[in-house]
């Protein structure tokens, strides 16, 4: 019998020697490749030849989110991966298309002068309610109402008894003499009632409904004015229709953008803040209207991860609005009705392409959560400023006791910033957005809260490159471009399209904005059609489309008295 051949084992390889060595070498190469290669799906972020972009893991736990953002913000290499521009380049700071448009609010030759339009023994008084920008709408509409009623307007009184308890008069905030003189051809305005009139009787008080049309004023106010000679309209905010003939819309623009000028004291301090921001930034800066104060968060009905303490504190504030129902935070967030947190705003701006070195001016009251809430935003943008940081206590002392004057300082800085970012759609945001459109479509960014909130909520892990790409896609149509809203849609103070014309060789003012603007809403899934009217637009008028407080896609938080004034 022949002997049995002994089988040799080579590390589990049953092949002949040469084949086994080949297999071993192949396995060694694969193992080495696995060590050097980036994880699947990270887009090669660990490639040492590429700049390292931060990976941000979203969690419903706000504390964990903050830690992730702070880690990203303190990583020097990651923080500087994005420069002062993105794929948009310089257009991130300034819309080139905006140069093709200009504000046009001059009265036509058919517009009768104030003397011809004003009847004797008709005096209109108003009480403008709310905060600074809510009062501003009341003042503007008071001029329009006086024009409709052919009455002499008495300088408006400002609300001094509501939530803000600000004792400022009209002349403490606005230049009253300039206001009267600049509108002298449109409406007759006086400082106070003549003694012969004021001694006869007290003014007859009326509260007109919101969005009262010219016909409404003729029916509800004019009879009393003819009988009593002096009528005072109370709680005067949003009491004139958004839909008006073009000549009245242009009057609104003349009041808002030209006649309403802050006092020299406010203007000079505001200009000082702007100058200091430009000196620190080397020229350009972002102004952020954060609006993350407790009252705004309570009104929104949203939850921001602060546990039972947050629910109790904000719930107590929310009870001020007796007409508000109990909110479903998840539903509100899905519908885009929740503001972004300061850190989310910072992430949005970084994703758009604004680098860590960009200087940011934050216009805000007391932020809910204080420094802990602001820390991630400051980590993303260390060049963080406010009026309290830029100015000394002595410089701000004349303004500190008056909330409206402090708000006016923020208004000046936000108006003159290179980029204005709003985190809500309240009165100040609308006013500034419209003003910046009128004066050349200066870059104005409004978060697409519906899409961005969804992005923050639903992602568990995502590369920074993908996150940034998603943000840039979602923000198209929310960057303050001229063609974002078609004529007749949106609130007039935010979209004063009757007062915006396209430049031409003749530079004529009669150019119809309908020929200027393109329809960019058709087929847009991010457009909330629930708040848009589809009725035909009468010739020579603007379409009133917004509800009292809702402006379609995105958050719309009124000032405190917006809800309780009625």
From TrEMBL:
Stretches the record annotates as Disordered: 533-566
CDD domains the UniProt entry points to: O-FucT_plant
Gene Ontology molecular function: glycosyltransferase activity
InterPro entries the UniProt entry points to: FucosylTrfase_pln, GDP-Fuc_O-FucTrfase
A GO biological process held by the record: fucose metabolic process
Keywords from the named record: Carbohydrate metabolism, Fucose metabolism, Glycosyltransferase, Membrane, Transferase, Transmembrane, Transmembrane helix
Record-annotated membrane-spanning stretches: 12-32
Stored Pfam families: O-FucT
Family: Belongs to the glycosyltransferase GT106 family.
Protein name (Swiss-Prot/TrEMBL): O-fucosyltransferase family protein
Source taxonomy: Eukaryota, Viridiplantae, Streptophyta, Embryophyta, Tracheophyta
């Amino acid at each position: 019998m022949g002997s049995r051949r002994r089988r040799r084992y080579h590390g589990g390889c049953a092949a002949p020697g040469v084949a086994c060595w080949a297999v071993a070498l192949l396995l060694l190469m694969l193992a080495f490749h696995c060590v050097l290669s980036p994880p699947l799906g990270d887009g090669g972020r660990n490639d040492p030849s590429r700049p390292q972009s931060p990976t941000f893991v979203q969690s419903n736990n706000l504390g964990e989110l903050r830690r992730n953002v702070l880690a990203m913000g303190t990583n020097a290499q990651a923080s500087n991966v994005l420069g002062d521009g993105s794929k948009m380049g310089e257009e991130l700071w300034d819309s080139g298309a905006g140069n093709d448009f200009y504000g046009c609010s001059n009265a036509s030759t058919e517009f009768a002068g104030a003397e011809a339009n004003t009847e004797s023994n008709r005096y209109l008084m108003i009480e403008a309610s709310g905060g600074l920008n809510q009062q501003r709408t009341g003042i503007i509409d008071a001029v329009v109402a006086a024009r409709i009623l052919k009455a002499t307007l008495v300088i408006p009184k400002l609300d001094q008894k509501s939530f803000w308890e600000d004792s400022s008069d009209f002349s403490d905030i606005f230049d009253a003499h300039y206001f009267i003189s600049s509108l002298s051809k449109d409406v007759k305005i006086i400082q106070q009632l003549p003694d012969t009139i004021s001694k006869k009787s007290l003014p007859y008080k009326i509260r007109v409904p919101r969005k009262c049309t010219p016909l409404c004023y003729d029916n509800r106010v004019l009879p009393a004015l003819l009988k009593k000679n002096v009528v005072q309209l109370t709680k005067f905010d949003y009491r004139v229709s958004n839909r008006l003939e073009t000549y009245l819309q242009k009057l609104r623009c003349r009041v808002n953008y030209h006649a309403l000028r802050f006092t020299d004291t406010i203007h000079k301090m505001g200009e000082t803040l702007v100058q200091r921001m430009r000196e620190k930034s080397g020229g350009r800066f972002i102004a952020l209207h954060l609006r993350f104060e407790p009252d705004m968060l309570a009104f929104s009905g949203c939850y921001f991860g602060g546990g039972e303490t947050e629910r109790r504190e904000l719930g107590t504030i929310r009870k001020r609005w007796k007409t508000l129902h109990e909110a479903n935070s998840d539903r509100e967030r899905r519908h885009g009705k929740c503001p972004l947190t300061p850190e989310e705003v910072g992430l949005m701006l970084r994703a758009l392409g604004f680098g860590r070195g960009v200087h940011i001016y934050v216009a805000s009251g007391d932020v809910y959560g204080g420094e802990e809430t602001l820390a991630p935003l400051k980590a993303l943008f260390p060049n963080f400023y406010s009026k309290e940081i830029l100015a000394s206590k002595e410089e701000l002392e004349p303004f500190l006791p008056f909330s409206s004057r402090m708000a006016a300082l923020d208004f000046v800085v936000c108006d003159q910033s290179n980029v204005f970012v709003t985190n809500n759609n309240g009165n100040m945001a609308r006013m500034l957005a419209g003003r910046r459109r009128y004066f050349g479509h200066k870059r104005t960014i409004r978060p697409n809260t519906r899409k961005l909130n969804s992005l923050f909520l639903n992602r568990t892990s995502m590369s920074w490159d993908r996150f940034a790409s998603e943000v840039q896609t979602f923000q198209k149509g929310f960057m303050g471009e001229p063609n974002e809203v078609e004529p007749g849609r949106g609130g007039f103070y935010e979209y004063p399209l009757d007062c915006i014309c396209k430049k031409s060789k003749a530079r004529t003012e009669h150019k119809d904005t309908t020929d200027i603007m393109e329809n960019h809403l058709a087929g847009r899934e991010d457009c909330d059609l629930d708040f848009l009217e589809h009725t035909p637009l009468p010739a020579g008028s603007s379409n009133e489309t917004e509800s009292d407080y809702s402006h379609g896609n995105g958050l719309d938080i009124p000032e405190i008295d917006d809800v309780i004034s009625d």
